[in-house]
């Protein structure tokens, strides 16, 4: 694991497996790696028999008790309301463990997932929620094996940019449908004019499953105190 982390964070001036580019900016893969290294995650997949499997993986030294897993199944190009929602109670997640979560026999869920998942028309979201209502892990997403070309799913726009604490910015996003992936970046013109500004978005490379989302833009280095404006932020939608 340490070797993997080194490889992903090493910087090469050539095509590479690194998830950081030569200017230390995060590539899309770095956000996935960051989420996968969280101390508590959900992992889900379809096995070789097409059966849905769900696991909780914990690196914590203490147990997690009385949690709930909330599942939401979306039909791409079918609006922002899920076609199925359900919750599973998890009495305990043991420390330093990987344990499968037993799912109830939901007829509506079984019928909705009785498909070849490579058709590219469904998106499944899983959230791990504590007894106090807090989210305990990064949101888990099961994407289709294949996705249609960009532009077929819906639209999203940057609706606002607000100053935040400690030199951060809050980027407001509005979506009109479920979108498999949103990618935020600063424009090429801004990066060319301000090569000394090192930045990253704390929330990036995520699906849109609600009409409004917010992401935090953090400037790691900004020696000239350059101000970011709304037109400097670009949004790519898949």
Keywords:
single chain; 238 residues; mainly beta; Immunoglobulin-like; 2 domains; four-stranded antiparallel sheet; globular; Beta-mannosidase
Written overview of the protein:
The protein is mainly beta. The longest helix has 9 residues. The two termini are 31 Å apart. Keywords: Glycosidase, Hydrolase. InterPro entries: Beta-mannosidase_GH2, GH.
In short:
This protein has 238 residues and is mainly beta.
Q: Which segments are poorly predicted (pLDDT under 50) over 5 or more consecutive residues?
A: none
Mean pLDDT: 88
CATH architecture of the largest domain: Sandwich
How is the main sheet built?
Answer: 4 strands, antiparallel
Gyration radius from CA atoms, angstroms: 19 Å
Pairing-aware structural class of the strands and helices?
A: mainly beta
Query: H/E element string?
Result: HHEEEEEHEEEEEHEEEE
Give the arrangement of secondary structure elements.
Elements: H1 2-9, H2 28-36, E1 40-46, E2 52-58, E3 64-75, E4 84-93, E5 97-100, H3 107-112, E6 122-129, E7 140-142, E8 156-163, E9 169-175, E10 179-186, H4 188-193, E11 198-201, E12 206-208, E13 212-221, E14 233-237
Antiparallel strand pairs: 1-2, 2-5, 3-4, 3-6, 6-7, 8-9, 9-13, 10-12, 10-14, 11-13
